[in-house]
Each structure stands twice: as C-alpha cells, then as structure tokens.
Specification:
Elements (H helix, E strand, L loop, with lengths): L1 H18 L4 H17 L1 H11 L1 H17 L7 H29 L3 H28 L2 H21 L10 H12 L1 H17 L2 H13 L4 H24 L5 H15 L9 H29 L6 H30 L3 H27 L1
Helix pairs in contact: 1-6, 1-7, 2-5, 2-14, 3-4, 3-5, 3-14, 4-5, 4-7, 5-14, 6-11, 6-13, 9-13, 9-14, 9-15, 10-11, 11-13, 12-13, 12-15, 14-15
Length: 368
C-alpha cells in the first residue's frame, strides 16, 4: 500500500514542478533531497529503530512524510520545496527502514529479500497507473490529499500489527558494528551500494525526459514506471530465487551491474520508442538483480541479527549520499546538453565500478 501511494505521486512530481516553472537543476536538487537526505540520516534512524522499536518509528515516519509532501500541493519558492523534500525524505527513510528491519529479523533468506522487493514493485506497478489517471482529471493538490489519506490508513494498520520488541542497544552490538565497518568486505559493499544508488538517482530524471520526447505525452513516464515494476514483479523471483539460485551473490551482482552498464547505450540514440523500451528493459533487469542482492550481502556480512538495524542504516546513509550527489549532477547534465547523451558518460563508470566490486567480493567468498 505504501508503494502504491509513493509511486502514484513520485512519477508526476517532476512533471508538476516543470509545469510550475522550476528549472531542471532545481528539480534535480529537490529530487535528490527527497531521495537522499533521509537515507543519509539512516545511520541515526537505525539506532533510533534499535532503541524505540520498528512500530513507533514506522508511524512517526509516515507523519513526517505526509507533512513534507503536503507542501507540494501549493505553489511556493524552490527553497520551501527543498525543505519539504527533506522532511518527507526523513519520514520515508524511517518508515522503510523500520519495516525492512522487522521483516529481516524474521528471516534473512534470499527468498524473503526478493519477495519484499516484489511487494514494493507491486505498488510501483499499480501506483503510476492510478497517478496518471488522476493527473489527467484532477488538480495535483487532490493527488497529494489522496496520498495523505493513504498514509493515515497505513499508520492505522501498522498500529494493529504485532511487531518485535525493540533491539537492545548494548556495548557488544556497538563493537560488532565497528568490526563490520572495518571489514574489507563491508568496505567493498559500501562502494557497490554507492555505485548502484548513484545510477538509480538518474532514473527519475531520465524517464520523464525520454518518455515525453518519445511518446509526446506528459503521462508517458507513468507508463514506463509501470513497465519497470511489471518486469520486476514478473521475473525477479524467477531469476533470483529459481534460475540463479546456484550462483553466489557476488556473481549475481556482477551480472546485474553488467546489464546496467549496457542499459545506458540506447540513450546515445535519439529518444524513440525502440531506444526507450531497450533502456527500460535493461535497467529493470539490472535493478531486479542488484537491489535485493545488496541486501542479501549486507545480512551475510552483518555479524549478528541484532545489528541489522544499524547495518541497514549505514547502507541507507551511503545510498542517500549517492542519491544526493547523483540527482543534481544528472539534472545539470540534462539542463546543459538538453539530451541524455551526457548521462551515459556519468553512468558507465559507475556500472564498471559495481562490476569490479562484485569481482573482488567474489574472490573473498572463494577464499573463505
């Protein structure tokens, strides 16, 4: 339900800000703040989750997210949008981290990680279609109000569900966390996380741009979000859990980053239906391989289950830095060139870095 609401709104936010006269660079900053600030704060959020518990943090996060997004119902200055995006981002990160930790405390198997990713993408599959329909017939403010109503319902449902007791923050847990940070495998993982989320930061910038040019309608980006989610829902479990079950996690990471490398090549072409379909398909396959596998590697490297909150928090902070850097750079590249060719020069080195990380992690796995 949270995924439906999020992806109902986010694909339309870029289009609405463009319609209000915001320039692409400012939009890139706003999107970077919306995606990145909460994740940068996730190390602190992870400690709060360990101390206060996932239920309390999830509900508080929904309140923050709703308050921040409410501002986008109004025409205000760019700085106000940036502040609102910051608040919404912290709330979103708190809710997401709390729910993820609760699930992973129950099971850390590849199957659980993949199913969680699929549930998120079911929301991503349904949400854009709902948002696109509402965008054509309603004011953007009405879509915000519908989102707020959804968050209230989610908070109510969370209050009815029984969660685990808060993790106990002890001296041993802090020692385990510091050992993890100093571990070479974790350092490599952090680099991989940074590379992946820097690539992902380009998605909300590139998709509306190429969709509008290829299909000549402002709602085409919602079609691409829906296609992305549909591909992941249809094939992620089959690929990661069934067909690639014999592969080590490092091998799946290498394959995913290699596919992300090739997904940027169609952007060199003039935006048209064929190049857009190629980009969306390759990006989606790379995403469905890399994203859950990073979580799987994190659970393996983490020295004990009671450290999962902080492990995921640290990862999310690194991802937040990547989003905060990647989105403005991507926005500036598009603003300067008025096309997506420059994005290729930014994306390919990041994908190559991810492949190198996967190879080095594989060598360490083989040495164990």
């Amino acid at each position: 339900m949270s995924g439906v609401t999020t992806f109902m709104l986010y694909p339309l936010l870029t289009l609405e800000l463009i319609r209000r006269g915001e320039n692409v660079f400012h939009i890139g900053v706003i999107l970077g703040l919306l995606s990145g600030v909460g994740q940068i704060s996730a190390t602190v959020i992870g400690r709060a989750n360990a101390k206060w518990g996932s239920k309390r943090l999830a509900v508080t996060g929904l309140i923050f997210r709703g308050a921040g997004l409410l501002v986008f119902a109004f025409h205000v200055e760019s700085a106000v949008y940036m502040a609102a995006a910051t608040l919404a981002s912290i709330g979103s990160s708190a809710t997401g981290l709390a729910i993820k930790t609760e699930l992973m405390r129950s099971s850390t198997s590849r199957r659980t990680v993949t199913l969680r990713s699929m549930m998120v993408n079911i929301g991503a599959f349904i949400g854009p279609s709902i948002g696109g329909s509402l965008f054509l017939t309603n004011a953007f403010g009405n879509i915000i109000i519908a989102s707020l109503a959804s968050y209230l319902l989610i908070a109510f449902l969370i209050c009815l569900i029984r969660f685990h007791e808060p993790e106990l923050t002890s001296v041993n847990e802090h020692i385990a966390t510091f050992r993890m940070i100093g571990d070479r495998s974790y350092i490599l993982l952090v680099i991989g996380v940074f590379s992946y989320w820097s690539l992902y930061a380009l998605w909300p910038l590139v998709v509306p741009f190429i969709a509008l040019r290829a299909f000549q309608t402002p709602v085409a980006s919602t079609w691409l979000y829906t296609a992305n989610a549909g591909l992941i829902i249809s094939f992620q479990y089959l690929l990661v859990v069934k067909l690639l079950s014999k592969l080590r996690s490092s091998q799946i990471l290498a394959t995913g980053f290699a596919i992300l490398l090739f997904c940027f090549l169609p952007l060199v072409m003039s935006p048209g239906p064929v190049s857009v379909v190629l980009f969306i398909t390759l990006f989606s396959v790379g995403e469905m391989l890399v994203s859950p596998t990073l979580d799987e590697v994190t659970t393996r490297i983490s020295t004990n289950k009671h450290g999962l909150s902080q492990a995921f928090g640290l990862n999310a902070s690194v991802a937040g830095v990547a989003l905060l850097i990647g989105a403005p750079i991507g926005g500036a590249i598009i603003a300067l060139s008025q096309n997506t060719v420059g994005i290729v020069l930014f994306g390919i080195p990041l994908a190559l870095t991810g492949i190198l990380v996967a190879v080095l992690l594989g060598r360490q796995e083989m040495a164990l």
